[in-house]
């Protein structure tokens, strides 16, 4: 790892990648890029509309294009991926070569209320609620576990206080800055 290393945050939807990513970017003095926001910009529509009008394959293709562009040689950034972004063929290998990959893995009891409060923006959870949502999320998490397990570091924090953010950054700063 060296001074030019990007920081990539992966994890299940609702794990806090965007929130933590923005906070880490501020602390590191780096630009922040959210893959979901980049896909929306590229395709000119919100993600639920992309799924409805173009389908999941079009979304995944745009997601991989955005990832490839984000991790090209440039000034180091903090990157927040979509939940499935690193699980596409070759994506995790690319991310591990180009960045320090950190998986966010909050406990299920923290994750589920976050997801329930934002179901309308999460097409992969469409039509799910209550016990059916919990079962669906657990199944998806099991499917993605091997992918997320390839991260260089895993943070299992449920709620991110300022102190928790500072502690987490202290664990990895040396890997990002080579000091």
Short description:
The mean pLDDT is 90.
3D architecture notes:
It is a single chain. By secondary structure, this protein is α/β, with parallel strands linked by helices. It has a single domain, classed as P-loop containing nucleotide triphosphate hydrolases (Rossmann fold). It is built from eight helices and five strands; from the N terminus they run βαβαααβαβααβα. It has helices spanning 17-28, 35-43, 47-53, 56-70, 91-98, 108-116, 130-148, 162-177; strands at 6-11, 32-34, 78-80, 99-104, 153-155. The protein has a five-stranded parallel sheet, with helices on both faces. The protein is globular, with a radius of gyration of 16 Å. 33% of the residues are buried. The model has no long low-confidence stretch (mean pLDDT 90).
Unreliable residue stretches: none
Total domain modules: 1
Radius of gyration: 16 Å
DSSP strand count: 5
Q: Judging from the principal axes of the Cα atoms, what is the shape?
A: globular
- Given the structure, what is the number of helices? 8
CATH architectural name: 3-Layer(aba) Sandwich
Q: What is the CATH third-level topology name?
A: Rossmann fold
What keyword list fits this structure?
8 helices, single chain, alpha/beta, 179 residues, five-stranded parallel beta sheet, Rossmann fold, 53% helix
Q: Which helices and strands appear, and what pairs or packs with what?
A:
Layout (H helix, E strand, L loop, with lengths): L5 E6 L5 H12 L3 E3 H9 L3 H7 L2 H15 L7 E3 L10 H8 E6 L3 H9 L13 H19 L4 E3 L6 H16 L2
Parallel strand pairs: 1-3, 1-4, 2-3, 4-5
Helix pairs in contact: 2-4, 3-4
